[in-house]
Amino acid sequence: MGHPPTPCTFAKATKPHQEHPESNRDSLLTDQESRLAVICDGVGDVMGAGQAARLAARTIKKRWQDLLTPDAEPDLADVLQQLLEEANRAVLALGMRLAKKEQKTDKDGKHTHYAETTIALALLYPHGDGYLMAYAHVGDSRVYLLRRDEPIQRLTVDDGYFTWIMGKGELNEQDALRIDQASRAEELTEEERAHFDMRNGISQSLGSEGLTFHLGQIEICPNDRILLCTDGIHDNLTDAEIERILRAGARTTVAKKLLQQAVERSQQDDKVHIRAKKDDMSAIVITCHFSRFLIHKIQRL
Prior knowledge:
By secondary structure, the chain is α+β, with helices and mostly antiparallel strands.
C-alpha cells in the first residue's frame, strides 16, 4: 500500500431491523491496512436495497486500493469524487438489471428504482506529522468527529428534510437543530412535531442520476474519535448521547455500546420517547491513538 497502517483502532457493529432479522440493508466495511471505513444504508423496502449497500461498499474498497500508490500523495478530493462516481455507476447498473428482471415500470413508463443506498466514507492518509481524513457522503448516513477537549462535530449535512426545509426559508438552522435533537413531545409545538416526524426523508442517494457528492477534509489529531453511522443510530440517539458514549467507551467496544444504546431506545414506546425508531443500525468508530513522535518514526523507516 506504500504506507504502514495508521495507528488507529477500527471498531464496528451492526444489527438488522427486528422485523426482518434475516436481512440487514445496512453494510459496513473497514480496512485498517488501507485506512478506509465505509458505511451504507440501502434505501427503501425493495429487493435491491441491501444489495446496493453491499455493492457500494465493495466498489469503494476496490477502487481505493487501485488508486492508493506508494509513490505520490493523491489529490484526496479527486479520489473521493472518483470513488463515489464509480460506486454510483455500479449501483445504477444493479438497479437496471433488477428492473429488467422484474420487467416492471412506473406509471410514466420508467423503470422502478430497485437499488439505492446512502453512503458515508472516511479515509486516512499520512500528511506532515499527522494524518488527513478525507470524508464524503450522500444521503443521511453521517460522519462525526470527537476531539478530546471539544464538543462533538457533525462533519456531514444530511441530504434530508431539514436541509430542504431550511433551503425554503421555513426554518432557520438553530430551530432545525433543536427540533432534530428533541426527545420528548412536550419539547415541541404541534407545528414543530410535524417537522420532526418528517425528518427521515432524504433527497438523494446512490443509484440515481445527477447527484451532488459532498466532500471534505480535516486534519486528524492524536486521541480523535471518528464515527460513521446510519440513521438507525442517530435517529434514536441525540448528538449529546452519542458524544457521551464515544467519550466513555473503550476503543474496541465503543461501536457495540452505541449500537446497544440505540437498540434499547428503539424498543421504547415512541409515545414516551419520540426518537424511538426500529431500523437497521450500524456504526464504525475509529480511535486514533498515534503520537507525533510515532508518525516521525514511521516516516523515517
